[in-house]
Amino acid sequence: MPKPTKGPRLGGGPAHERLMLANLATALFTHKRITTTETKAKRLRPLAERLVTFAKRGDLHARRRVMTIIRDKSAVHELFTEIAPLMAEREGGYTRIVKTGYRKGDNAPMAVIELVLEPVNPKPKSAKKTAAAAAAAAPAAEEAPAEEPTTEETEEVVVEETTADDAATEESASEESSK
């Protein structure tokens, strides 16, 4: 279990809470999606994600560690053979909690907790990462021989020369007109 809770436990004592979470995890791995109260779903998430991480390892020791929590062999088999291969590329976030409203009898907030079985879509690289890659390639460019100035630099030089010539012709024209 990740972090022990402060305050009242789900269902009374800590042993009952462990059993309840184990049964919820068994139902989650068997049905891939269950409806429960929001509190139970939030408490189940870290346990379920840890068990999926064990299943991704796939070795005998991981299977035995999962079997100490989930006592149903068919649920453990399904976790290791069907669910773990689907989660192979995913680096976390194996479960999703969706709030569904309130229960009719006691107005308890309800939620659906489900396994995220969709394939992972990698995010595009950000501008910072591409700038870092360009900076890494810059030392290789410095080793290359010096190139001729670009067309933008040559245009600036040409523009400056023409303005100097124009200024000289204007001065000579003003001298001639003043004579």
* Largest sheet data: 3 strands, antiparallel
Strand adjacency order, main sheet: 1-3-2
Structural class: mainly alpha
Low-confidence stretches: none
Tell me the helix content. 55-70%
Radius of gyration: 34 Å
Average pLDDT: 82
Q: Helix and strand string, N-terminal first? A: HEHHHEEHH
DSSP E strands, number: 3
Shape: elongated
In terms of DSSP E residues, the strand content is 5-15%
Please count the helical segments.
6
InterPro entries: Ribosomal_bL17 (IPR000456), Ribosomal_bL17_CS (IPR047859), Ribosomal_bL17_sf (IPR036373)
Protein name: Large ribosomal subunit protein bL17
Pfam family, one: Ribosomal_L17
Keywords: Ribonucleoprotein, Ribosomal protein
Summarize the structure.
With 179 residues, the protein is mainly alpha-helical. The chain contains six helices and three strands, in the order H-E-H-H-H-E-E-H-H. The chain starts with 13 loop residues before the first helix and ends with a helix.
Write the layout of secondary structure elements.
Layout: H1 14-31, E1 33-37, H2 38-57, H3 60-69, H4 73-86, E2 95-102, E3 109-115, H5 127-143, H6 151-178
Antiparallel strand pairs: 1-3, 2-3
Helix pairs in contact: 1-2, 1-4, 2-3, 2-4
